[in-house]
Design a protein that fits this description.
It comes from Hydrogenophaga taeniospiralis CCUG 15921. It is an enzyme of class 2 (transferase). It catalyses: 5 isopentenyl diphosphate + (2E,6E)-farnesyl diphosphate = all-trans-octaprenyl diphosphate + 5 diphosphate. Supplies octaprenyl diphosphate, the precursor for the side chain of the isoprenoid quinones ubiquinone and menaquinone. One of its GO terms (biological process) is isoprenoid biosynthetic process. This protein is mainly alpha-helical. The chain has a single domain, classed as Farnesyl Diphosphate Synthase (Orthogonal Bundle). It is 72% helix and 1% strand. It is built from 17 helices and two strands. Strands 1-2 form a two-stranded antiparallel sheet. Strand 1 and strand 2 form a beta hairpin. Helix 4 runs antiparallel to helix 9, helix 7 crosses helix 8 and helix 10 runs antiparallel to helix 16. It starts with 15 loop residues before the first helix and ends in a 5-residue tail after the last helix.
Amino acid sequence: MTSTSLPTSTPLDLIHLDMQRVDQVISERLTTEVPLVREVAQYIISAGGKRLRPALLLLVSGALGSQNPHRHALAAVVEFIHTATLLHDDVVDESTLRRGRETANERFGNAASVLVGDFLYSRAFQMMVDVNDMRVMQVLSDATNVIAEGEVLQLMNMHDTTLDEAAYLRVIRSKTAKLFEASARLAPILAGANPQIEALCATYGQALGTAFQVIDDVLDYEGSAGELGKNLGDDLREGKVTLPIICALRTASDTEQSLIRQAIQHGDLTHLDDILSIIVQTGALTSARNSAMTEAQRAIDAVRQLPSNAYTTALLQLAAGLLERRS
């Protein structure tokens, strides 16, 4: 692990060498005699991304002064689980663009994407078993189950314009924040920390993951395809009622509400420009960002109760930096 005294330009620079080791583990564990499995898995994993979930496990490990030898393998496990969810999500959502290039389902077809997602899930569980720790198994198996429930909840909520903020938060805390929470919880388990420290780390992860998803949903109405690496208005096309829409519906006029509801109910992007204007004029993006700020502050409050060192500073920076995210 890199020295805590080294200056860093971003929070993740502190774990640069650790992340290289995680990438090595990922490459080693993608071995298979089935060429299509390897091709699809490497295609989506090589697309990059922020790798926040494995990074979170490594940063929290550093904050707790832990160098448990299993940390790199479990960081790779977390990335495999996340990648599997992406493969399945893009099929369900009929997405065509992710991280600035074709989705795996667009390139290889739905069947290959679903089956390779299954492969990554099962490989992740093989790697969990190697760690031989029942608490680790419990946390990760519970997380994958909750994520699946969140996916189903989201499916049930599609095209439902009566969805409120509480129901929305329930979905994203299951679908997105749960793996952040699990990643942050694994570090104190590996470190043998007490239950209070474990709870603080889990709170940080859940709050960070919630803020991350809220900002992601804001950017669907605020950015551009070039900046986001996905198509602007995808959530609207898919009938997803996210926080910017919920906030806009609270204060929009009857006519504006009708326009938004019609688009959500039918996945109609015909009036996307008008809806974007309504979302901006009602202050919905600001309201949603304020909700993300509340979650980021919750993460900051939790991590401030951990030992003070370069890694906890990086965790604080990570939470604060989410609010400035533009892609």
